[in-house]
Design goal:
CATH architecture of the largest domain: Alpha-Beta Complex
Helix content: 40-55%
Largest sheet: 6 strands, parallel
Number of strands: 12
CATH superfamily of the largest domain: inorganic pyrophosphatase (n-terminal core)
Low-confidence stretches: none
Mean pLDDT: 96
Bound molecules: manganese (II) ion
CATH class of the largest domain: Alpha Beta
Structural class: alpha/beta
Number of helices: 13
Order of helices and strands: HEHEEHEHEEHHHHHEEHHEEHEEH
Number of domains: 2
Shape: globular
């Protein structure tokens, strides 16, 4: 169970205006946790807004009240005013203000005196929040928001709508309860949420069985291009901007593709490279067992994350990025083997 300082409890009780910020390119966990916290704070009498740095992906637009989420990229002045007036600013599912994107980060840094509350499960949190709930042993921020509400004594306030968004967050961050971050406590919380009357099968269908034809074709292309390096137990996929364009790529279309690399027998490490429209490459890393995907991402690709799931980026071309990867992979694996010998 988490400890919630009295000061924060009092602040939540007496505040009237709060804001909830999620990370750039929000996923199911970021939005699921934020929407549930928003409902909770509304029940406490707050006027509160969920703020996303950029557009939310299409596959999550069915979540309740997503049309009310404020998008910083399209509405910066209005959001700045809301943040200036907010008595509490929650930041969800990220560990550093830079994850809110350059422009919003710059503005948030000017608001240092505000009461920031971090709820997050990523490693190595930055020190910007007055109240910090950071626990990398948790499956998801949604699990932590559940704990947060329950610890405040409001388990009964979790209604079907909140349970739906929290369940979505936990389900997506655990890969439908199969990733190593799934604990018995995760399952207990999922069971509690099911008891609130959610339709778990419908959530599963909405997230995973609602691909567009373009997305399935893009997946076909990605799988055809999968490269396996048996000597390093590593599989990788690289998609260039022309291929993305050919299949009318929409944000979120490649969600989950990287996991197919790990479906390969004998693959312990899977990587996906996505070429950006303008410049640079985004990279996703997934691993099995003790292989530290986050260390690899941090050391060579300006990123980080969890042991088994991490992200990174370069400002290089796709070819140069893959070259760098093929150069650093043996070095990293050799070092790991030495350390574990
Ligand atoms: Mn998360």
């Amino acid at each position: 169970m988490i400890q919630i300082p009295e000061q924060l409890k009092e602040l939540i009780e007496k505040s009237k205006l709060s804001a909830i910020i999620v990370h750039r390119n929000p996923d199911g966990d970021a939005l699921g946790s934020a929407l549930a916290l928003q409902s909770f704070l509304q029940k406490k009498g707050h006027k509160t807004h969920v703020i996303s740095p950029n557009e939310i992906p299409g596959y999550l637009k069915w979540l309740p009240e997503t049309e009310e989420i404020l998008i910083y990229e399209t509405n910066p002045e209005k959001i700045q005013n809301i943040l200036k007036d907010s008595e509490i600013i929650f930041t969800l599912d990220f560990n550093d203000l830079s994850r809110s994107g350059k422009d919003l980060e710059k503005f948030l840094k000017k608001l240092k005196a505000k009461t920031f509350v971090m709820i997050d499960h990523h490693l190595e949190p930055s020190d910007y929040a007055r109240f910090m709930f950071s626990d990398s042993s948790k499956s998801s921020t949604s699990e932590m928001v559940y704990d947060f509400i329950v610890t405040l004594g409001h388990k009964n306030d979790i209604d079907r709508k909140m349970a739906t968004t929290l369940y979505t967050g936990i389900m997506t961050d655990t890969g439908s309860f199969k990733f190593p971050n799934t604990t018995s406590q995760t399952m207990r919380i999922a069971a509690d949420l099911m008891d609130k009357g959610i339709n778990h099968n419908e959530i599963q269908t909405k997230i995973f069985d609602s691909f567009s034809l373009d997305k399935l074709h893009l997946l076909g292309e990605a799988l055809n291009k999968l490269v396996f390096l048996p000597q390093y137990k590593t599989a990788y996929i690289a998609l260039g901007k022309d291929e993305l364009k050919k299949h009318h790529y929409q944000k979120g279309d490649t969600e989950g593709f990287v996991n197919y690399g790990l479906a390969l027998k004998d693959a312990d490490f899977a990587v996906m490279f996505l070429e950006n429209e303008n410049e640079g490459v985004r990279i996703s890393f997934r691993s099995k067992g003790n292989f530290p995907a986050n260390e690899f991402a941090k050391k060579y690709f300006n990123g980080g994350g969890h042991l088994n799931a991490a992200g990174g980026k370069t400002s290089k071309s796709l070819e140069e990025t893959i070259r760098l990867f093929l150069e650093k992979l043996p070095e990293f694996i050799n070092r790991l083997q030495l350390e574990n010998a």
